[in-house]
Structure formats: C-alpha cells, structure tokens
C-alpha cells in the first residue's frame, strides 16, 4: 500500500510539471491572439474603453494595438497569464488522472464504450471545476490586467491596476473576497462543459487508435485541434458572461451594469444580440491552437520526465 501511495504521488507530481511546462510554452506562443480575444470580449463592459474608440473586430484590434500601444503590448498580461495558467493547467491534468481512476476503475473501454466515454467526460469536467476553485482569483486578475486597453501609455499612478498583485489587492480592498470570485458559478458551469469535451473527446479519440501511446505527432495535433475548437465554441457564451461579470468588481453598486449572472445573460442578449456572446470567438478558435499544442506537448514532456 505504501509503495502504491508513493507511486501515485510521483505520478501526480510528474503530471503537474508536465502540464505546467507545456502550458507555459504554448500560451506564450499565442499571447497576442489571447489579448485580442479578451479585449473584444469585455470592451463593452470596460470603463477604460470608450464606445467611440472600441475595436470593430479582430483585424481592427490586431492593427490598432501596435499602432496605439506598441508592438510589445501584444504580450501585455502574458506573464500574469503564464503564472495563472501554470497551476490551472497543471492542476487540470493532475486531477484529471485522479478522477479517471475514480470514474473509470474496472471499466473496459472495448466492452463498455459509452460507460468509458461518460467516465472520460466526468473526469475532465470534475478536474476543471476542482482546479478552478484554487486559481480563480488569478484568472480574475489576469482578465482585468489584460483587458485594460485604454490604460496603455499612462503613467503607473494613472493606471487602474499596475499588475497582478496590485489588481488582487485593490479588488480585495474595495469588494472583499467576493470581488475576486465574481462570475465564479457561471465559470464552473462553463469549465465543466469545456473540460468535459476537452479531455473526454481527446482521450476517447486517442483510445480508438490502434496504438494510442505511439500516435504520430500530426495525428495527435489534429485530434487536439478539433477537440479544442469544438469545446471552445460550445462553452464560449459562458466564458463571455463570466468575464463580463469579472469587469463588475471595483464598481459602486449603483454603477454596476449587471445585477447578477442571469441579468448579464439577459442584458447581453437584449441589448447587444446573441452574436455578442461570441465576440472574439474566431480569435478563440485561433487561440485554440495553443490549447491543442498543450495537449500534445503534455504527452511529449511526460514521456521525458
């Protein structure tokens, strides 16, 4: 039993570092797309971006960022994103295998395909929800820091937030702990849907291959790319609502755009149309390439550890 516990601990640590390293590399590669996606998604709820100067779309955003803010600003918030993403993705992968043992123990995938498929969905969703409980304040701060388009070029004293720690401290001071977890419930809903598809479909698809452990890199990448694209589109409206809710923190009660999550869903649909739920979605599809690389790199890095 002691040997089994030690083996499980080593496997957990191995999963944690393999997931974290692969995530840091992949996220840095797609950081410009990530920032464009965030700006398009939350600009309607940002006090720092005026409606007159709002970005008209992905191309407009890509063109204007280097002109107005400098080329390096494409990577604004990337360090915070890597810091946030390392524990997020690493915990997702580590917990995924823990939950797989819980949900898939004793199930033969060849004899009970749908039971195995459901187990993969459950393990992926549970992993995402569990890790989110730990890292949500970091996700909140990264969103706020990255979405400050109009703050670029201002002095440190003029900016709303001067970094990850400053954002966390100011939000905690003005709103208390609830400010750091604003939009948490809709995040859990979205993350379960996204992660269930993300891990469930990927593991199931690889399991259908003749030799899953020796799958060619290009095949693994194509499977991962398809999975991340579909997962991202399905869960995107939840992501838009949660990020809009994040933008509420720091505002006075009578200045808040949305009373609660349900009110946010209703107002976006009524005032901006259903297409507003998918603002930045194409950028997200491109960004999904990074997530696909994470899945593939994870397998490669884990093999080296």
Task: Offer a concise description of the structure.
With 305 residues, the chain is mainly alpha-helical.
- What is the CATH C level class, in words? Mainly Alpha
Given helix and strand content, the structural type is mainly alpha
Largest sheet report: none
Q: Write down the CATH topology.
A: Mitochondrial carrier fold
Q: Quickly count the domains.
A: 1
The helix/strand order is HHHHHHHHHHH
CATH architecture: Alpha/alpha barrel
Measured as a percent range, the helix fraction is over 70%
The chain-level mean pLDDT equals 82
Radius of gyration: 20 Å
Binned strand content: under 5%
Question: Total helix count?
Answer: 11
Q: What general outline do the C-alpha atoms trace?
A: globular
Low-pLDDT parts are none
Instruction: Tell me the total number of β-strands.
Output: 0
Distance between the termini: 24 Å
Spell out the CATH superfamily.
Mitochondrial carrier domain
Subunit structure: Monomer.
Protein name: ADP/ATP translocase
Keywords: Antiport, Membrane, Mitochondrion, Mitochondrion inner membrane, Repeat, Transmembrane, Transmembrane helix, Transport
GO molecular function: ATP:ADP antiporter activity
Description:
- Helices cover 72% and strands 0% of the residues.
- It is mainly alpha-helical.
- Helix 5 packs across helix 6 (164-175) and helix 8 runs antiparallel to helix 9 (217-246).
- It is globular and about 60 Å long.
- The two termini are 24 Å apart.
- The model has no long low-confidence stretch (mean pLDDT 82).
